[in-house]
């Protein structure tokens, strides 16, 4: 049975129907002193979509992720969640709205066991103080949750510092998705990982995607992104310069595009090119 909500004209597969947009970043700018990290960035994430955000170091990817998760506040522009503007003053605010992040620099406590890390920072959002939860219950819930998202760890009692990088990342993803999340941000989830560890995380992201989790994945490996994403956006010097469905582009097109962008940079210099991309 189809929904009879507003927006009657949109075909079910129409990629840009507003009803499909879960997160709408509108004209966001952010500077750190003289450095313009983001210049009028607009980006939409559709419900159940995996959006890849790619770009060089310093392009502004983490800044954008940190604005969406409430860590930074934009200088201008706004963020809409399910069509409503939201004001995010903190990461807790964003969590309350159902936006959570796995940071590039992992926010786990290495000296605590896996199960405890899954509850970190959750006290206020879960609704019950952490210390009142029986440890055995925490362990059991942690074990069940990890199993349900197909993360195999030797033991939920193991301290995080004893885990491999891939296992730690899996715990970080598990923690972010443990409560209902509308939008999950993953900032370079595969950074500094070997092939085997990467495939652990790729499988985890794919599993979440297959359950309809809306996600933004920041990475700079196109091969990974083509494997994971429904859509790709390129951020260059604080500006979105490319935004296409994976089905409408190819690894070859992306590679050609980036090579030509590098040639432009070499030819005209960064500043000039950025001004050109921004202005009329
Ligand atoms: N807290 C900060 N203070 C000052 N400059 C920052 C800060 N965070 C990021 N920047 C600068 O903003 C730009 C974008 O950084 P970032 O968003 O981390 O890029 P990316 O994640 O794409 O590598 C860079 O020039 C970076 O040095
Ligand atoms: Mg970054």
In a nutshell, what does this entry contain?
The protein is an alpha/beta fold and 280 residues long. 36% of the residues lie in helices and 23% in strands. It has helices at 61-68, 91-97, 114-119, 123-126, 135-148, 165-177, 195-210, 222-228, 251-268, 270-278, and strands spanning 21-32, 35-46, 50-54, 76-81, 84-86, 99-102, 183-187, 214-218, 231-236, 239-245.
Would you write up a description of this structure?
- It is globular and about 60 Å long.
- The strands form two sheets. The chain has a six-stranded mixed beta sheet, sandwiched between helices. Strands 2-1-4-5 form a four-stranded antiparallel beta sheet, with helices on one face.
- It contains ten helices and ten strands.
- It is an alpha/beta fold and 280 residues long.
- Helix 6 packs parallel to helix 7 and helix 9 (251-268) crosses helix 10.
- The protein has a domain at 21-109 and 180-278: Rossmann fold (3-Layer(aba) Sandwich), CATH 3.40.50.300.
- It binds adenosine-5'-diphosphate and magnesium ion (MG).
**Content-based structural category:** alpha/beta
CATH architectural grouping of the domain at 21-109 and 180-278: 3-Layer(aba) Sandwich
- Uncertain segments are 1-15, 123-127, 271-280
Number of strands: 10
Query: Kindly, what is the distance between the CA atoms of the first and last residues, rounded to a whole number of angstroms?
Result: 46 Å
| Share of β-strand residues | 15-25%
- Assign a percent range to the helix content: 25-40%
Bound molecules: adenosine-5'-diphosphate, magnesium ion
Write out the strand line-up for the largest beta sheet, numbering strands in chain order: 6-7-8-3-9-10
CATH class of the domain at 21-109 and 180-278: Alpha Beta
